[in-house]
Amino acid sequence: MDPGFSISRRARGWALALTILLGLWTVAVVVLPNAVVWLIGDTLVIEGLTMPRVVWVLVALFTFLLAGVPALLLAQLSPVPFARTAGRQWLLAAGFGALLGVARLIPTTFHELYLAVLAALAAIAAAVHMSIKGRLEPRADRDRWMFWLSLAAGLLLLLPWLWVGALGGALESVLALLAALAVSWLATRPVLALTARAATAHNGWAGAALAGLLAGVGLTSLAAGVGEPAVQLMALLCVPPAAFALAALRHKGEPSVVALLTPVLFGPLALVDPDETSLILGLRDGLFWGGVGAAASGVLALLAAIAVLVAFRRARWRTWLSAALAAVIAVIGAVVYVTLGQPGLSGERLFVVMREQADLSGVAAIPNHAERVRQTYERLVATAERSQASLRAALRSRGLSYTPFYLVNGIEVDAGPVAREWLAGRTDVAHVLLNPHLRPLPATESPMHGTAAAPTSPPWNLTLIKADQVWARYSTGKGIVVGSSDSGVDGTHPALRANFRGGDDSWLDPYGPDRTPTDGNGHGTHTMATAVGAGVGVAPGAQWMACENLPRNLGSMANYLTCLQFMLAPYPAGADPWHAGRPDRAPQVLTNSWGCPTVEGCDLYSMRPAIDAFAAAGIFFVAAAGNTGPRCRSITDPPANYAATLTVGAVDRNAHVAEFSSRGPTPDGLTKPDVLAPGEDVLSALPGGGYDYLSGTSMATPHVAGVVALMWSANPALIGDVARTRAILAETATPATPTGKACATPADTTGAGLVDALAAVQAAVALPAH
C-alpha cells in the first residue's frame, strides 16, 4: 500500500487539490507566454521586422522559473508521496524544456541545423540523466507486447498529420525523426515515474486520469522546448494528451514512451514547415492545417486511452497480435498518406546568384523600343548560358536537379545545406540564397468574392487623380499592354474579359494546369482591374496579360523571376523561356504589387539585375512600397528599394498618406516612395464577377501603371522613355498630406506627391517631337 494512505483522507484531498491547481498553473505559464510571444513575433514579421531569437531563450527561462519554483516547493513540502513525485518530475521536465529551447537561437533559415541541435541536446540530456539515475529496467515479461501496443497508439496519433501535413526534404525528415526519438527518450523517466506513482496511489479509471494529468503537465513543459515557435504551439496541443494514452497503458504493463511519443512528435516536426505557419499566408494555410492535425491527434490520444482501459482488461495479448495491430495502423497510415495526404518530398531549394551579370550598357540608347527589348533579352540569355555552363555540368555530375534563370543570372537548385556550402565556395558564384518551396495543403482557401455593386460612375480614386478627365479628352490607354505578376487574374470577369490580349503567350500559370487566366486568391484580379478594368480601371482601353507568382502569398526568387522573364519575353506555356521567348510581345508597363522579403529568400540586392534590365529595355516597372508604415526606413524589400523601380505609396480619399504606407529612406539611402496614388478603400473587381474594397499600397500601384498607359497611349513617341516618363510623373504630381512622424525628408513619406493623370498626360502630349 502507498505510504501516503497513512495520511488523513482530508490531508490527501488538500494535497491532491493543490497538485491539480499547480498543474493547471504550470500549463498556463507554459502555454500562454509562448503563444503571446509567437503572436508578437509573427506580427513583427508582417510589419517587416524580426524579433531577436534570444527572446525565445528568455521566454524559456521565464517559464522555467514560473513553473519550476512551485514544482520545487511541491516536491519538498507536500506530505503526499505522489505529489512529491509530481513536483520533482515537473521540475525536471521544465528544466528539460528550457534546455531544448536554447536551440531556437538558430535562425529559421537553418532549419536542418535546428533539428540536429534539438536532437543532440535531447540525446545528451537523456544520456546524462540516465547516467545519474541509472537505466530503466522494464519488466521483461511485458516489454515486447507493450512496445508494440505503445507503437500502435503512437501510429494512431500520427494519422491526422499524414492527412494534413507534407514532408520537407529528405535530410530534414531524417533529422526530424532523430529529434523526435531523442526527445521521446528524454521524456521516458519523468513520464514513467509520474504514471507509476499515480497508478500505485489510485486504481482503475481514477488512477489513469490522475496519471494522465500528472504526466500531461510534465509533457507540456517538455513540449514547450520542441519545434520552431508555431510548430511548438502545435506540439503543445498534441503531445500532452498523449500522456493519457500512456497512463492507460501503464495500468496494463510497462509502456514504451519512445514508441508512443516518437510518432506524435514526428508529426509537427517533420510534416509542418515553420516558414508556412505565419498569419501573413492567411487563416486557412499551414497554421490552420497544422492546428487541425494537432487537435485531431490530441482527440485520438484521449480515445486511445479509453479504448485501452475498456478493451484491455487483462494482459492476455501476445506479442504477435500487438505487432499485428501496429502493422494494421501503419498500413492505414500509408493509405491515408498516399490517398488523402500530400506524398513526396517538398524540401527547400537554393537560388545560386552567379558572379557575372549581363552587361547591358548601350542598350538604353537604341532608339527603336522593340529592338531595345530584343537586345536586352538576347544579351541576358547569352551571358547566362555561357557563365552557367560549368556550374550546370557540376550539378548534373552530382545528380542535382536545377532550373536556370537569365533575368538574374542564377540557378535554382534542388538541394540543401550541404550543397549550399559547396556552391557558396565556387569562384563563379556571388552568393547562395534560400529559395522557399511551398508544401502542398489538403485544400487551399477560397478566393475573395466581392459583395459590393459594380460602379455606375467613376469611383473616388479615379476622380481623385483625374483619370476620368483623360478619357474624354485624350485617351483610354488603347495600344498599350499592361503586365501583372500577382496571384493571377479572373479572365472571365466582366471588367477584364474584353481587353485580355489573348494568344498563347499572354497568361502563364507556372505551378498549375490553368491555361486560361484564373485567380485563386483575388489580389491579382483586384490590382489588374484597377489598372485597366472597365468601370474601375485607370486605363480601361489598355490590354492586359498576367502571370501567377503568388499562389499562396509566399513567393521566392524563382517564383518572381519566372513571371518577370515571361514579361520580358512572353512564351507559350510549357515552352523554353530561354529560346522560345518573344520579346516583341513584351508589355510596355508592368504593375507589381508584391515584395520579396528575407523570409522568401531575397536579400537587398538579389533582384536588382532584373529591374535594371527592364529599365534598359524601356519597360516601365512600377512596384508597391509596402504596408509597414508609418515606421520610417520601412521600404526594404525588393523590388521597391531599387532606384530603377517606380515605387508607389498610398493615400486615402482626402489625399492624406495612409498610415500603413511604407516610408523611406531605403537601406541604400534612396528617397522613397517616388509617388503616391489612392490605396485606401479602393473599389475594384474580384473573382466570380464581384467587386469590393481593398486597401494597401498594392491597390495604389496599378493606378500609376494605368497613368503611364494613358501617357504612352496619348503620345506613342514616349513609349520606352522611362526616364522622361518618371520625370513627368514627378513634375506633375500634386501635394499630399503627410501622416505619422517625420522621416529623413518629407519626400520619404510623400515622394513627389499624388499622381495627376490629367496633368501627366497633358505634359506627355506637349512634349516636342524628336
From TrEMBL:
> According to its UniProt record, what is one Pfam family this protein matches?
Peptidase_S8
Leader peptide range in chain numbering: none
Note the InterPro entries from the entry.
Peptidase_S8/S53_dom, Peptidase_S8/S53_dom_sf, Peptidase_S8_Ser-AS, Peptidase_S8_subtilisin-like, Peptidase_S8_subtilisin-rel
Family matches, as SUPFAM superfamilies: Subtilisin-like
Keyword vocabulary terms for this entry: Hydrolase, Membrane, Protease, Serine protease, Transmembrane, Transmembrane helix
Residue runs in coiled coils: none
Active site: which residues?
486, 523, 698
The membrane-spanning stretches of this chain are: 14-41, 53-77, 89-107, 113-132, 144-164, 170-192, 204-224, 230-249, 256-272, 287-312, 319-340
Q: Which domain of life is it from?
A: Bacteria
Task: Give residue ranges for domain Peptidase S8/S53.
Answer: 477-736
**Family per similarity comment:** Belongs to the peptidase S8 family.
This protein is called what? Peptidase S8/S53 domain-containing protein
Give the species this sequence originates from.
Dactylosporangium salmoneum
The taxonomic lineage of its organism, from the top, reads:
Bacteria, Bacillati, Actinomycetota, Actinomycetes, Micromonosporales
